Amino acid sequence: MDLGLTGKRALVLASSRGLGLGVAEALAAEGANVLITGRDGERLQAASEAINKRGAGQAKFMVSDLSDKNTPALLEETVGKEFGGLDVLVNNTGGPPPGMMSEADLAVVHRQFEIMVLSVMDVTARFLPGMRAQGWGRVLTLASSGVVQPIPNLGLSNALRATLVGWSKSMANEVAGDGVTFNMLLPGRIETARLKQLDAANAERSGKSLEAIGAAAQAQIPVGRYGAVEEFAATAAFLVSARASYVNGSMIRCDGGAIKSV
């Protein structure tokens, strides 16, 4: 299936590694030109070079930090300079420290809200007018299965990412008539460095071995394993494609069936 992404201009936030990088690679493989971003310049350079060697879409990179309030404006400037506009925005942020919501420090909550919620809203607001004017755009926000079924010991992530659910649905209702769709993609337990970090934190908290934690987690997933980044990224590529023009205001789960609700 031709996804209709050849020549499309995409920005993927927090894409030096993990799910963000996987999505950027998938978009470039479909012929999109991507701007990858993150704090690690060496990782970004290596990732962009690897993408460009494969052909199809090309990648550029920008070192940026979503905790810096100047970043959204700098992203807007860079996209304008490199691409002249934007067709696809993939919102992605790092996760907050694990822990119980009842024990959260309000100063940490406030700071993480700025990074994980306000930065996403700011970046999106800067590119939305151009998408509406051209009559085509895709905004995909990567969140977590915790917005549907809260994840133990990830209270802050559950709470903050849930804010983006209402925002994304509201935006979907407001701008779809202009050819712009808003959707959310919810990863379950996808095998990334972040997942390893969370498993390690759970092992330390429970006193169990890392192997036991991993085995117990995978036993709760109907497909019986952690997901691969490539599986998640392929789902993202479809959702931002021309073929997904009637998918709007949705939360798509990529979790192997782990979420228990219908």
UniProtKB/TrEMBL annotation:
Spell out the InterPro entries in the cross-references.
Answer: NAD(P)-bd_dom_sf, SDR, SDR_fam
Q: Which Gene3D superfamilies match?
A: NAD(P)-binding Rossmann-like Domain (3.40.50.720)
- What Pfam families does the record point to? adh_short_C2
Quote the CDD domains the UniProt record gives.
BKR_like_SDR_like
Q: Which family does it belong to?
A: Belongs to the short-chain dehydrogenases/reductases (SDR) family.
* UniProt xrefs under PANTHER family: 3-OXOACYL-(ACYL-CARRIER-PROTEIN) REDUCTASE, NADPH-DEPENDENT REDUCTASE BACG
Name of the protein described by the UniProt record = SDR family oxidoreductase
